Here is the input.
Amino acid sequence: MSFLKVKDLKVHYPIRGGFFNKVISNVYAVDGVNMEIEVGKTYGLVGESGSGKSTIGKAIMGLEKVTSGMVEYEGQELNLKRVGRKTKFRKDVQMIFQDSMSSLNPKKRVLDIIAEPIRNFENLTVTEERKKVLELLDIVGLDEESMYKYSFQFSGGQRQRIGVARAIATNPKLIIADEPVSALDLSVQAQVLNYMKEIQKKMGLSYIFISHDLGVVKHMCDHMYIMYKGRFVESGTREDIYDNPKHIYTKRLIAAIPDVNPKEKLKNKQNRLEIEKYYKENEKTYYDENNRVYDLRKISDTHYVAMKDEVE
Ligand SMILES: Nc1ncnc2c1ncn2[C@@H]1O[C@H](COP(=O)(O)OP(=O)(O)O)[C@@H](O)[C@H]1O
Ligand SMILES: [Mg+2]
Here is the structure.
């Protein structure tokens, strides 16, 4: 059962120009997407830069003006224009950003950064609050001293830990993680992903994990949404997407995952050439005359692909 649904969500940004600064066209940042989020699962939202991933995340959080469509939380439509600071939704759904340097207030100590969301929902004494923050720091592998430092005194990986501690402080149901490891070295990426997974097990959380890199989310996700130009080109379980990709764009993303060994390298190079050739011949199957991605069609209970004709 899904507790959060995104229904035909659209976010269009007007582009103004000319002498009278009129709206001359629109950026279709998000152009009709549907999502269903279940308890304890991880959803990958993957696509190249500019495809609209962050806009979806921000729209769900009520941080972006929605053109049409809606978000339903626990069976009720959210008023995205006015999600109050102290509502249950604010407690239950948290976000982590790629750039923790700019998203964590540099003038505040870690204690206050992590305690801030708790203060919206609970009236703890100073001692209780410290105890709670200490527990959270412990979960993400930081020591007590960290409480009294400022975010700029930490490394990138440590700052991401602080971001996670803050996000889980209210005991949320869902965390939207927008490229949480993209700015980190590969070795640190793996650490961060691992403890995010551990925390998920402990707390029964769901994640929407946003990434431009299909390789990063591969081991994390139960279900993936592949995004291109504001639309979903494919949606399916991890196996549907990795073992049986149907949309040409998904195939391209998979072929773009960096090669590990020399044998794979050669195979992937051939794959890539084949994909490009196939793409040139079959472009019309995937994009309509306006170069817009077709609507998703169901090809199995879990697998959806945006294609014009029945999938052969
Ligand atoms: N405030 C804005 N005004 C106009 N265009 C925007 C704005 N924010 C984002 N966009 C555009 O919307 C598209 C999607 O952006 P974004 O959601 O940030 O993509 P992603 O996170 O996948 O890189 C991009 O073309 C971007 O330039
Ligand atoms: Mg983004």
